[in-house]
Description:
Layout: H1 4-17, E1 23-27, H2 41-46, E2 51-57, E3 60-65, E4 71-74, E5 80-83, E6 92-94, E7 97-99, E8 104-110, E9 115-119, E10 126-129, H3 145-152, H4 159-164, H5 174-184, H6 197-217, E11 242-247, E12 250-255
Antiparallel strand pairs: 1-8, 2-3, 3-4, 4-10, 5-9, 6-7, 8-9, 11-12
Helix pairs in contact: 1-6, 3-6, 5-6
Amino acid sequence: xxxxxxxxxxxxxxxxxxxxxxxxxxxxxxxxxxxxxxxxxxxxxxxxxxxxxxxxxxxxxxxxxxxxxxxxxxxxxxxxxxxxxxxxxxxxxxxxxxxxxxxxxxxxxxxxxxxxxxxxxxxxxxxxxxxxxxxxxxxxxxxxxxxxxxxxxxxxxxxxxxxxxxxxxxxxxxxxxxxxxxxxxxxxxxxxxxxxxxxxxxxxxxxxxxxxxxxxxxxxxxxxxxxxxxxxxxxxxxxxxxxxxxxxxxxxxxxxxxxxxxx
Length: 263
């Protein structure tokens, strides 16, 4: 499930291999992935342009072009970006017509023969022109101490739901939240407004550390607590049972001993 680390890796891939290549064709026929654009609308706007810079805020990613519109790409639940991947060139034919592989929902083809594709088995990713970013909070990997305190340390809602609210801070998903809260030894059920400044500062550091580690190791699935997020799981730090519950609509695991908060 793509979270901030996976999106950052996708952004870095585009920055490294997808920029300054002339776009000669666009497959935007999937009207669901490319909504609200009609088929051909994104193609008309991008053909003849080049991607010039790739950016990210939280789990949202956008690419600027040389005088054309901004292209927004969202990985959804299972999407990823592939560039010049052999499988993306594996077209199948139907009466002389060529079609993209079934999981490539949106594709740019470049003048040099290469391509960039949004590959998404679950079809929950998005490709959109000039995406709105004003509803996002500051990036979870870059938010300042004072901003984090002011945004996270308020309200009676559970702490995990607060840090997963993309309007509060952008980029923390379900797995990253469990990992960071476990590292910080904070109960995910605890009211966010009840944390003091020292606890908030500690949580901010652990979110940043968990994010850096996930980027370095290839994704949030590499977190220390992730293999133990199961009904018979035990805390890899102290050996206590892992507790399980639903917070903010998401399945949540935490150490029953080290993350217990009496309130």
